[in-house]
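S1.2 Input.
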Amino acid sequence: MQTAREKMAAGAWYSCLDAELDALRRTAREAVHQHNHMAPGARESLSAPLRGLFAAHGPDCLIEAPFHASYGCHIHLGARIYINAGCVILDSAQVVIGDDTMIGPGAQILCAQHHKDPVKRAEGLEIALPVTIGRNVWIGAGAIVMPGITIGETAIVGAGAVVTRDVAAGQTVTGVPARPI
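S1.3 Output.
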C-alpha cells in the first residue's frame, strides 16, 4: 500500500490531509518564515533556510520576500534565478526552473489540482502535476502557471497571463488563457 507521499510523487490521486505531508508543509512554512523575516542584506543570495529546503539550486539565485512554497523539497533551481516579491510555488510535484530565468512579482506556479468531485475534494483528494520552466524564461508579474505545464527556453509569459497549455521555446504568450502573440 502506497503512502500519500508516494502517491503524490507518482502523480496519482492522494489525500493532502495526511500527517506525513502535513509535517513536510510545516517544515516548509518554518523555512519560508525564516527567509521572509531576514534582513534584506541577508537575502542577497539564496537564503540558508531555502537552501536547506529546496531539492537543488545553482549559484547566484535570489528570491525576494515575501515568498511562499508549500513543500519546497520539490523545487529545483538552475543558476542565476531571480524570483521577485510575492511569488508562490505550490510544489506538490517537481518544479524545475532553468538557468537565467526571471519570475515577476506576484507570479504563481501551481502543481496541485484538486478533485472535481466535491465529495472527494472535501476528503482532500488531489493530484500533483510537475511544472518545468526552461532556461532564460521571463515570467511576468502576476502570471499563473497551472499544473503540468512546460515552458520552453527563452519563452516569455506576459504579466497577468494564465498558462493552461505548454509554451514552446522562444514563444511569447499573454492573456487569460495565455495565447501566443
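S1.4 Remarks. The chain is about 20% helix and 30% strand.
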